[in-house]
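Need residues for this backbone.
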């Protein structure tokens, strides 16, 4: 691979280690060493990575909040035939990391975009979690404010796929508590922390059990965290409700989160709100 510009530039999406530098793949090293420019989320952070591998390719800062001028500069370099490598602080760019705008505009401009696969925290966590991996939904970071976070979780309460979230250490206890309220305390969950690093940890149990473990051990409130929640499974002990209440609730559940649907159904039918909520959580997804 040569530094000499070709007629057509190329944008490489390069995955980098999420902790263990030995996970850097040879192809990624080759691209970073021979690209004409590396666009990084944080040049100070990525500078350490490049120094470790003795890569002296010019480095510029780019993220999705960069101004339009920075985006145009990168696109201009690509249109002039340059090879540009996009990296994030760790893992695969664009997966809850910056880069979407640049890739989107490059595609619109007819520039070739090539992925260089490698580490990804959500895939690493899922592969070792022991939870079903045939169908899953990556939800990224939940909203920081409790109201919005609760609404987001309630909308997922009946999703049958394994749900995967990223969470920050200072919010993990609130996050698990809100999950227990939305999904039920007995829902199986796995918390993967500090993946590929020295203190890599997997905790597995019910939400109630994990809440207790995290509360008892301050170390579980440190580092990078992935939370994986088993998808909805209908229990055998869902409460009985009247046929009229069931019909009303089923209609409302098509448009509303579980908590809101149960509240409205209670007002319409006279059934107790908590009973309707428990039935909704305990029902089979297919009526």
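Answer:
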């Amino acid at each position: 691979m040569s530094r000499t510009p070709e007629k057509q530039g190329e944008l490489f999406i390069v995955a980098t280690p999420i902790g263990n530098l030995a996970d850097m793949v040879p192809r990624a090293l080759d691209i970073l060493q021979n690209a004409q420019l590396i666009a990084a989320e944080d040049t100070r952070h990525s500078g350490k990575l490049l120094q470790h591998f003795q890569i002296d390719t010019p480095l510029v800062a780019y993220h999705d909040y960069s101004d339009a001028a920075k985006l145009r500069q990168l696109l201009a370099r690509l249109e002039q035939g340059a090879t540009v490598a996009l990296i994030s602080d760790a893992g695969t760019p664009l997966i809850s990391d910056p880069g979407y705008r640049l890739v989107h505009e490059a595609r619109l401009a007819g520039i070739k975009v090539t992925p260089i696969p490698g580490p990804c925290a959500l895939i690493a966590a899922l592969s070792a979690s022991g939870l079903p991996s045939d169908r899953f939904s990556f939800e990224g970071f939940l909203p920081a404010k409790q109201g919005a976070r609760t609404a987001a979780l309630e909308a997922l309460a009946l999703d049958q796929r394994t749900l995967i979230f990223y969470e920050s250490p200072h919010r993990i206890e609130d996050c698990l508590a809100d999950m227990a309220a939305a999904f039920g305390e007995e829902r199986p969950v796995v918390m993967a922390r500090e993946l590929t690093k020295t203190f890599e940890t997997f905790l597995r149990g019910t939400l109630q059990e994990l809440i207790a473990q995290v509360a008892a051990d301050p170390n579980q409130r440190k580092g990078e965290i992935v939370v994986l929640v088993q998808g909805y499974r209908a229990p055998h002990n869902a409460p009985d409700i009247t046929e009229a209440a069931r019909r009303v609730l089923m209609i409302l559940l098509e448009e509303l989160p579980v908590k809101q649907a149960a509240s409205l159904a209670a007002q319409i039918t006279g059934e107790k709100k908590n009973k309707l909520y428990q039935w909704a959580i305990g029902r089979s997804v297919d009526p």
